Amino acid sequence: MLSWLEHDTPIYMSRGCKKILEIAHKFNQTKYNPAPATTFDTETIEIPESEISVTPIAVDHSGFDSRAFLISDGEENILYSGDIRDHGRQNYLTKQFPDKLPSQIDSFILEGTLLTRKYKGVQSEEEVLNKLASYLKNNSELCLIAFSSQNIDRLVSVFRACLKTNRTLVIDPYTAYILHELRGFSKKLPQHFWNNMGILFAANSYTQTIKQEQLYRFASAKVTKDMIRDNPEKYVLKSNGYVESHLVKGKLLDSTTLVYSQWSGYADGIWESNEVHHIHCSGHAQIETLQDLINKINPDMLIPIHTEDEEAFASHMV
Predict the structure, then answer these.
(1) Which helix (H) or strand (E) covers residue 12, if one does?
(2) How far apart, in Å, are the Cα atoms of 277 and each of 123, 143, 257?
(3) Residues 148, 161: contact at Cβ < 8 Å?
(4) Residue 263 host element (H or E)
(5) pTM of the shown model
(6) How deeply is 45 buried, as exposed, middle or buried, from its count of CB atoms within 10 A (0-12, 13-18, 19+)?
(7) Which single residue of 17, 34, 193, 269 has CA 20 to 30 Å from 257?
(8) What is the per-residue pLDDT across 229-245, written as a single tens digit (0 to 9) for each?
């Protein structure tokens, strides 16, 4: 929605958010070009021609490098949670979140995505890893798995499950490009040249967007269709449109098991089958986490957003 703003609107975001948006813009996923945006990670900024300051606070979320915001005019404090959870790979950030706030919060703008969703299943990223590893250990077929390339927590979970079961995670050049671009944020992010990482070169528009010299960088990690077909039990293949249309539907890969690892609302095509195994955890806080945050922060006013039923807060938070 950033592309809908007036072009001269000042925009601030974390460094990681800007990098993700730069990638999205490069691959025509958004019309918004984040080049003019100002990054701020922990420092407080002063809004020009006002007495308002904004302080970013890192929180756990499936979106990379997410922030909550403390907004203050020196007398009143408004806290905006952003999208938040405490069951990801950086859950400690959300657990420490209340300790980084002033004692008085006048208004708390809080997301409530899961308040009205009957969410059941895996509860944390660590459980995603362990459940997927257990599934791979007891299965000798090729595993085709669907998850977002920009969900870095999930990518790490899948990669570590591959390490536990001595499989190679096969990604596409687009996903490899994302990991390469984010390498400066953490030395723990898997890279194409690591053991148990491979790349299947998909003939699609995303691959064409990557410059030839950048593609050449990934050549050492190349995995072919024949390699996968000959030893399916050795691989976990990340799904994309090319894989689904040319390999699976074209029956070029036999003995394939399907794992879906994102919100079920996105599922279509082969992912609507009853034979799909769902191993996923939400990018949003569960009710108990929201209750704990409210109790610890103790705001004068609660303002619910990002929920299908704002009245649900009243019934759950008393």
Answers:
(1) strand 12-13
(2) 16, 10, 8
(3) no
(4) none
(5) 0.93
(6) middle
(7) 193
(8) 899 999 999 999 888 88
